Amino acid sequence: MDLRYPRNSAELVAMRKSGNVPELPVLVALAGPLNFNNVTLSAVAGQRYDWRPVAALDVEVFASADVPWGDLLRVLADIAAVVPKSLVLTFAEGPRVHCGEMSTVPGQDFALFDWFPMPIGPIHWPASRTLARRLLDASGDTLPAPYDHACELVVQLVAERCNNPMEMA
Predict the structure, then answer these.
(1) Alpha-carbon gap, residue 133 to 81, rounded angstroms
(2) Among 37, 80, 47, 48, which Cα is nearest to 61's?
(3) Which residues, 6+ apart, have CB-to-CB distance to 141 below 8 Å?
(4) CB-based burial, 110-124: b 16+ in 10 Å, e otherwise
(5) In 3-state terms, what secondary structure has residue 45?
(6) How much is the average pLDDT of 58-72?
(7) What is the gyration radius of the CA atoms in the chain, in angstroms?
(8) Cα dihedral angle (156, 55, 77, 159), rounded to 10 degrees?
(9) Residues 12-37: pLDDT tens digits?
């Protein structure tokens, strides 16, 4: 399935092709326009996009209570699948949560997104804490847990190699 980039992606795609990255986090607007100097991508929650341009970058998603929860989770999961450096969710109503960040495996050539929702909105702490809990509850279910899957693959690989000792040499 060919997915399109979110609106306003041309600048970011051009930067990535030339080997450059933005200094500030890339913003993703799900609830109307944003008034920041950051590279800002516009998306419609519930639609699928090609998020590869945000891989290994800091990303902050801006939503509102009007964005359906399931659609928001889908956007977060799709962005996390391309493994951003970090992912933050900010609501127009105030709550803010650091969703997780990229983890690399030492000596290996891959990275994965490690979900670890933490409230970071001190002014709206109770709502941020509730939001973080909801995201944590969704991880492993609606939000895939690639770290858990990677661990399962390592255990499977070790078991296969133990059954065939010639591969270990």
Answers:
(1) 21
(2) 80
(3) none
(4) ebbbbbebebbbeeb
(5) coil
(6) 96
(7) 18
(8) 0
(9) 999 999 999 999 999 999 998 899 99
